Amino acid sequence: MDRLNSSPRLMLVSDLDHTMVDHHDPENSSLLRFNALWEAHYRQDSLLVFSTGRSPTLYNQLRKEKPMITPDIAIMSVGTEITYGKSMVPDDGWVQFLNQKWDKDIVIEETSKFPELKPQAETEQRPHKVSFYVQKDKAQSVTQALSKVLEGRGLNVKIIYSGGIDLDVLPNGAGKGQALAYLLKKFETEGKPPLNTLACGDSGNDAELFSIPGVYGVMVSNAQEELLQWHSENAKDNPNILHASERCASGIIQAIGHFNLGLNLSPRDVSDIGREDSSPSLEIVNFALLLEKWRRAEIENTELFIAGLKATALPSGTYIHPSGSVYNIKEYMNIFGKVYGDKKGKQFRTWVDDVLATQLAPGTWLMKFNKWELCGEERKGCAVTSILSKKDSDWYTLVHLHQTWLEHSGQGEWLV
């Protein structure tokens, strides 16, 4: 990625459903723990890659439903599409590679002759992926027969069965593992190979990720039978693949520590905020978490808290509200006394996304990030630009804060 001047310290490649995202966790606690860890300690010098079987349509739908942060790279549609950054710019080189010995029309023609195959939604039919549902007891025989038929038609395809129901027909060069291998080779060519790569998954279509040489792997504790069986048959003695004891994103955090890939203590798991090893990014994450706890009444309401907040702001500092109104930062902080506990007992969470720090001068940083609030199903988001200074003490001073509404974000009363 262009934003990194050197090799990524860590490239973390994760499946989404039931790996990064726990659909059985209404509080999204493990996902939020990971978000805080990544933004505080990894975003600045590492790469986050989401590798999902979802099409772009269903991927974007999930992003609206769950408190997810933005990846640097998205591998979608079971490794048939690679995009970069917030704008999801497609990788044309990958498209050209997949066009070899692939004809979607022939695949559709031949699969229509198998009554066991039930087509998935139109959004899941992609240029290099044709997707079906098939009963588990029919999957193996259908896969073998279909593979023989398509080979006879001159196509070089791969058929992947996962989740106990999903069957995808792809070009033979496609797949999550091949997409990862392509990216690693690309970074190697650019002279910026990741120092470490961690692949994370739970189902059969993730097995390829663990087969790439030099890659660490974690199967989350809730991994499906098909992936556990693959591990038993192919990698049970591989010390670089861990079957975590924690579910979903918590298992990913566990793996980071297990393989000594970096810090794996999420700011959400720290009760006492220290200052000794603080960084501008950690400061942003901790401040958001502090305000979440304040509004959920999880910390004590004292005058000392408000005084402490004011002490972190420059007396002449300015705050530009999303409405465009301009305030003195210290004066605006008086509002916090009025909102203590206003979200008590509610599913209210705050997270920051894409936290990037640029050092303007010794002890001064320009911070850019997105800040989100989620209460029930209501979501609000702002793009934030701030300036932090740390020159004369162990504490960061807030010099400037400017917020603007994010497009398509719910708008209303916005605090900080």
TrEMBL record:
Highest taxon above the source species: Eukaryota
Cofactor(s), by name: Mg(2+)
GO terms assigned for molecular function: magnesium ion binding; sucrose-phosphate phosphatase activity
GO terms of biological process kind: sucrose biosynthetic process
Pfam family, one: S6PP
Keyword Hydrolase: yes
CDD domains: HAD_SPP
Known EC number: 3.1.3.24
Keywords: Hydrolase, Magnesium
Pathway terms, separated by semicolons: Glycan biosynthesis; sucrose biosynthesis; sucrose from D-fructose 6-phosphate and UDP-alpha-D-glucose: step 2/2
Catalytic activity: sucrose 6(F)-phosphate + H2O = sucrose + phosphate
Enzyme class (EC, first level): hydrolase
Record-annotated Sucrose phosphatase-like domain positions: 9-260
Keyword Disulfide bond: no
Domain Sucrose-phosphatase C-terminal: 280-407
Stated role: Catalyzes the final step of sucrose synthesis.
Quaternary structure annotation from Swiss-Prot or TrEMBL: Homodimer.
Similarity comment: family membership: Belongs to the sucrose phosphatase family.
Name the UniProt record assigns to this protein: Sucrose-phosphatase
